[in-house]
Known about the structure:
This protein is of the alpha/beta class. The chain has helices at residues 11-23, 41-45, 69-81, 118-130, 147-160, 177-181, 208-213, 238-249, 265-274, 287-293, 299-304, 324-336, 357-368, 380-390, 447-454, 462-478, 484-499, and strands spanning 2-6, 28-32, 52-55, 86-90, 104-110, 135-141, 167-172, 191-194, 224-230, 253-259, 277-282, 296-297, 309-312, 318-321, 349-353, 372-376, 393-394, 407-410, 435-438, 458-460. An eight-stranded parallel sheet has the order 7-6-5-4-3-2-1-8. It has a six-stranded mixed sheet with strand order 10-9-11-13-14-12, with helices on both faces.
Amino acid sequence: MICVSLARGRTSMMRAEHQKLADDGVGLVELRLDWLTKPDVPRLLKDRPTPVVVTCRREEDGGKWRGDEGARLTLLRTAIIEGAEYVDLELDVAPKIPRYGDTKRVVSHHDFTGTPSDEALAERHAVAAAADADVIKLVTMATRPADNLQTLGLMRRAAAAATPVPTVAFCMGPSGLVSRYLAGRNGAPWTYASFSGGRTLAPGMVSYEQLRAWRYDAVGPDTRLFAVLGDPIAQSLSPAVHNAAIEDAGLDAAYVPILLPKDEFEEGVETLAEVGFGGFSVTIPHKEAALAWADSRDPAATRIGAANTLVRGEDGKWTASNTDLPAALSSLVDAMRTTDPAATLERKTALVLGAGGVTRAVASGLMDAGAAVTICGRTAEKTAALAEELGCVSVTWENRSARQYDIVVNGTPVGMHPEPDAAPLPENAVADGAVVFDTIYNPENTLLLKRARARGAATVSGVEMFVRQAAAQFRAFHDVDPPVEVMREAFRRGISAVKR
């Protein structure tokens, strides 16, 4: 279950949002009295549409209460008298407020300095249990990915105890998402989420809509777990695409985005593997590290020097692969075959714009398929070095339209939202009958593609490449055919949401 925390300055606004959550099917709401300018507990609890956890958090515990401590305790006692389903009491406060009526006691402790040892967590848990707790809430700060193992382990041990006390334990901070996300799977009665993504009450907290989109309520003990790893990761559309496909296919699986800084890749991926993840999509800046970390690699990933997919086999070994390259090449060939069913890439001339990872992958694949490749980037030295490494030709950015090519691939960000009125080539630089592939997907219909179509060229958008590479990952993760149209539609909906 997801408990949504409400924090507004006025009682009327908090009641309105509470009703909205109830209408949206949320089953438990935390009312943060410390955010209210004039807390009116009886009015707040009257005719409440869902069960509640009433909380009034001090500043040292991450809250906004700056008033008298006696007044704060009076508010909590009032909530108990008014019959709130739960009242949150800090570890040092719980002994001062005796049990009364049917209200259950959430005994909590927050540590903003880090995550203590298993022994220290167990000791805090025992103290909370002794304070007549119905639910224990222990929250720490994640300073490294492995900290999640301690809070998740605590919940599992609490659930398996001879006399179990329901326990919610997770890590705050960007590195703590996995413990929030897997709280229910590891025995917690609920996890916490914010009302909206723009109103975060604690470091690393996400909205209830995000948790739902990541299939939180569907995650059970046997659910297969997958993630996209990167930094940054907030704008990734992979979770929307993969979870839509998972639901359409009726699979017991879930997919979540995990922020993983570059220097934490190895510890992060090993931590996630330990808590049950069986596959990863890998994006910037981890593609080279993923290739090195894996137990085995496919030829495409080895040739490019980067992997975008990691899959754990039944033997526990991890295989790295690259689905970007086959997605790009198949998209190009299919576009060529709209006019020539027998078309291949062999002996075609190709201009690949850019000098980054996309250029490396696509240029390598085109060369392997027999095309004559020229690369062109805006930094002459970087472009020349890449061309020498790949064994192809390079031209300067100023000379990119000096001749025309059978195939043009844009691997630069020129023309990307929010600057869609730019193009990486002059208007008349594309040959009639050429194939033009723009790896940009936002917008889908770039100025480069519009101009190319006007000259009779076949075109491929970045949407097609993304969907095809995601479909290949889906097949690798689940060993079933992907619902490609479902994935394509989810991707386009995601692009529209980003633009708004």
